[in-house]
DNA sequence: CGCGATTTTGAGAGCCGTCAAGATACGTGG
DNA sequence: CCACGTATCTTGACGGCTCTCAAAATCGCG
């Protein structure tokens, strides 16, 4: 578990324009709050379902997947964690994670001691507010996924998921030359959408044949996002400036 | 929109043992924060999807349903709001609700002005923390529903939903003589579980025939909750003391 | 007593799941 | 640079869980 320290004030993420700017006092506090950084390889389990972690994390780089499993092995992906997302909040609040988290790529995480979360609320209410904001945003993402899994057809689900994730990557500046480095497998996508792997593959093949998505290996490209959104019967919300801790 | 005022310190809900006790200062603040009460009939739309409400609500009595819809009318219920639950937090944070909320029974709601939510964080960090707690709890409930809709069979889904809602009602002291006043229709249950009404009805009939659930009209009774949980492949988490605003 | 909402039931179709096998890509060691 | 094992992706066949359509039976309520 190698750790190192980079000053928050030099953190390149605060400068992305999808994130809200912090003032100097807040940054100073976060720098003090920060315990270190954590680097993990792709495939590393970060937090298990039910885990009671002493740390809270913010994703700096990389992707992770959040999922729950039934005892017999059936797995359902809840969501994906990308830069700016919090990992481990539930453990901080309830002493137990409701889902497991696993790295999909090499990741760089910012580590905060959970026992000090409380002082964050006391000393910087604005940051406490930000934590609520992020928790509520997770709730909103989950709601969209629930609508997708509950009421969209297989074709719509796949269109929705690819459009959605491409959009998130795009907002984070991860799309270069129209391409996104996409660490999701079809098996993962199937578990995200409540579909079987085989049916996911066949439906995806059709979407690909129609030219709506171009996904080979780890490279995802979406020629016409609006067209894909139409297929998914989805509409983009207005972009929000998010807090970044 | 009739309103009246009852002192928070006399609010009977703080005494339920599923809720965390507030100290005198907190109660005094909430009393000041509180704008009034709202009484609505069953069937009243409280907040629409995308609504930007000036108020935030806490449910005092009654049930509401949170749902999202696709443009062609397909509906997915996210969750049910019961006493102690917050309604309208997303509007306070994002200027728009991600889901609609509608009363299923006559309801009594506590009304708070959204513009003062911020002062709550400033002046009573402990209450700001509680808001985060409640938001994160919603997230957790949504996760369970997503697992259910994505990976459980129709039989398991119905068993899960009835067991889950009966459990929540029970924790709130709503179960009397083993019976819960259950304002959910089969059509609503179908939309909760991502199933069709017809299949929901037939699967439910089987569960009923086997004696696992006794649901007639608005009265829900579950002879053996553990047996139903086994069918649902679910397990109860440890009961948590929740904040109540 | 009558009307709308809700629940039931039956029939038939289809979307999607399961099983099975092969093809392709990828990482590793020789 | 090639061989080989593993992960991932494809494809085909078949079955069934769940959907849709349709209509009747009940319930709730004024």
How would you describe what is shown here?
Two copies of one chain form a homodimer. Chain A has 245 residues and is α+β, with helices and mostly antiparallel strands. The first copy, chain A, contains eight helices and twelve strands. Chain A has helices at residues 24-33, 89-94, 117-123, 125-151, 154-171, 186-193, 197-209, 225-232, and strands spanning 36-40, 45-47, 55-61, 64-69, 75-81, 86-87, 100-103, 107-113, 175-176, 179-181, 214-216, 219-221. In chain A, strand 4 and strand 5 form a beta hairpin. The model of chain A has no long low-confidence stretch (mean pLDDT 94). Chains A and B meet through strand 5, helix 2, helix 3 and helix 4 of A and strand 5, helix 2, helix 3 and helix 4 of B. The first copy, chain A, binds a DNA duplex (30 and 30 nucleotides) through helix 7.
């Amino acid at each position: 578990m190698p750790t190192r320290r980079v000053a928050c004030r030099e953190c390149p993420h605060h400068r992305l324009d999808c994130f809200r700017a912090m003032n100097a006092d807040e940054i100073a506090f976060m720098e003090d709050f920060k315990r270190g950084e954590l680097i993990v390889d792709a495939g590393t389990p970060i937090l298990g379902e039910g885990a009671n972690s002493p740390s809270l994390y913010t994703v700096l780089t990389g992707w992770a997947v959040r999922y729950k499993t039934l005892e017999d092995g059936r797995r359902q992906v809840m969501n994906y964690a990308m830069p700016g997302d919090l990992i481990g909040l539930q453990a901080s609040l309830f002493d137990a994670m409701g889902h497991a988290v696993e790295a999909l790529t090499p990741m760089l995480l910012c580590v905060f001691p959970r026992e000090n979360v409380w002082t964050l609320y006391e000393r910087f209410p604005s940051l406490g507010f930000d934590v609520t904001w992020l928790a509520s945003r997770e709730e909103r993402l989950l709601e969209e996924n629930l609508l997708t899994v509950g009421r969209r057809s297989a074709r719509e689900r796949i269109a929705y998921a690819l459009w959605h994730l491409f959009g998130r990557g795009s907002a984070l500046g991860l799309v270069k030359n129209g391409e996104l480095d996409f660490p999701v497998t079809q098996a993962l996508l199937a578990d995200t959408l409540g579909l079987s792997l085989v049916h996911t593959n066949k439906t995806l093949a059709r979407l690909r044949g129609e030219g709506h998505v171009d996904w080979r290996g780890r490279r995802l490209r979406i020629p016409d996002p609006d067209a894909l959104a139409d297929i998914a019967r989805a509409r983009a919300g207005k972009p929000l400036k998010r807090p970044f801790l």
